[in-house]
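Subject: sequence -> structure tokens, single chain

Hey, anyone have a minute? Need the predicted structure for the following. Not urgent.
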Amino acid sequence: MPYAKLWSKIPVTIAFSLLITAGSSLLAATAEELIERQTGNNPFSGQFCDYTSFQASVVGDRLLMFGGNLTINKGANSKEKRELEPGFQFFSMLLNETFQATASVSEYLRREPDPAAEKRIASMRDGGAYSYNGDIYFYGGQQLFNAGDDDLIYKCTPTSRDIVWNSAAINGNVRRTITKGASVDASSENKGFYFGGQSIIAKGSDDAQADRVLNGTLSNNLIVVSFSSGKQEFANITASASRSRPLTQSNLLFVPAGKEGILVNLGGDDGTGDGAWEDLQVFDIGSSTWFNQRTRGNLTSGNSRYPGPGTCSVVQSDGDNHFIYVYGGSNRAPGQSQLAILTIPTFQWFTVSKRSYPSKVNAQCQLVGERQMLILGGRSSNGRGDCGGNSFLEILDISSLDIVSIFPNSNPFTPPPLVRTASNSSNPLDGWTDPELQGLYEVQYQTFAQRNRESKSEKGPIIGGVVGGVAGVIILGIIAVFFIMRSHRKKSTRDVKEAVAEVKRNSAAQPFLGHPSPAFTSGEYPNAYPHGHPPSQSYKDDYIVEAPANPAPVELPPSTPAMRPIELPS
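Reply:
Had a minute. Here:
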């Protein structure tokens, strides 16, 4: 049957329904394709295996992950050869969405668009990422291709639509050529820190060449970047080898203690296989001073004395007590303790062993909310050649110490029972290794913004006092001048009144008050007033010479207007 005839037999309402349904399906397919293309619902070209050596940073409600090594399985099963996916790596997770970590990685992990011309930062291993005022700044790391200038770093500005890439200059005798160090973003201080690592040689702009790591070169420099509106300042603080030995792949944490906060550096590798576990390296930001602090507690698990390098960590505070959670490590095999907790100020270690804890090396840890620690990426430490059984994301509840699947959790943080007893003390169990550190630690911490507001509020009364004091002196001066003038004014008025009264008293005896002539000068003042009266003097009773009695005129003669009585002020 021809389509026209068939269409004519379909009722109009049904025809419209079919058109609407078909159009909706087409629009839905187009929208779904657009969303998939924009958000990357299929972010990998093969089966996900592991993701390591990348940087993670939270901006607003997004967790962004840059660079690193992504290993995938391009075969049909886990026995196929694993391959490193070359090129650009840039992923994101929305932190305002509810999801399950057990679901497919494509349900919550999105691949961001390739910025094409700016692949340098997205091809970087290790390094540090620092967020300030909506921008993310990158420092250090080994670039796999398109190696850049020594004096430039890169930054990006995530927006609701895209990612804007720019470069930023380095100053303060600092170079970007360092990798495998420890970084921390101290956002409450508007600062970022990068400690230790190995030196690298930049190989230029040739895409075929990568930065080369100089093995055996360990640095104990602390790079500090301070952010302010429109600029960033870099500083290089060389640590004393006796207080801060060089380390690679350690964990640097910002602890809100002391006047401007302290940094705790732990773990890593010092070239012998050991790191900073029993003796921690502590940096006081306010005084730019390194200290050592002895810890107590047993970290041994299985055959390994320490967790080793490749750990990740977060810090959470409960009043004056701080808890550092350290996960994974290259020395921890499946079945061994993957979690260690350090309490401050007791500086005591605790280890936690649970079968639900997967083994992780070179993962990234981020604290989201008050009690959920996201363990991102990493690889299994069991040495398997396939993709392993670990998922990209594990969520640790740092209060219950359980691996959970639902994100997010808005409940407040409470210290786990394991560490509550240790948090009752306000001093290290073995005392302060550096007594000066005790004094610094006991100072109540305030954020940069709080100190800035307090400084302004303190300057206000000082400036107000100075201004008020000056104003007070001026006011007192004005009052003094007013009373002096008023006194003179009253005196002048009184003199005028007396003069007027005297004129009235003598008006009956004097025809007028003219200039005294020699004929009327008393013998006591023979030549006292040759010109009429003393200069700048008012007439006084003593100076008036009596004249013969005459009838008083009705008014003063017009020839003597200057001697008319002065009007009283109103």
